[in-house]
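In line with agreed milestones, the collection of sequences with tokenised folds has grown. A representative record is reproduced below.
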Amino acid sequence: TLTRGFDYYTGTTFEVFDTNPENPRALMGGGRYDRLLALFGKELLPAVGFAFGDVTLSDFLETHGLLPAAGQRPQVYLGTPTPEDRSRASIFADSLRNEGIRVFVNLTDKSLGDQVRDAARRQIPYFVAYGEAEAASGRVRLKALATGEESDVTVADIAEYVMV
């Protein structure tokens, strides 16, 4: 009774729907496609897969009141001086989020200068580089991107500056 529209399915197909009648579209679908890899010159391998759409996910979140309010941009862009700093920055970001601060953490290999430009492009008002030195000292340089003003603050005092 279900047609997924792809000719490579070889067995069971499925779709997942929201139970709310206000959102009648399928959220995701998939099925078994044992011969798919063979189409690309590989061996026959049993496989099952699925996918969901960004629009259907957005519809689901909106129907259930789970979308964040408009204008809820991050308040702080947490830059990472080196790739090794990503883990400690993520842990620090969680502590800031526990204080009610919305945080974006850099996960790229961009230089700090490029990260500052990325923060400005994203219209995130504050930038903090957080690496080994900041973790050890408990202090950071908080840069207000609109003015360029930098403040040397303790990690405990960031909320006072950001939540104005």
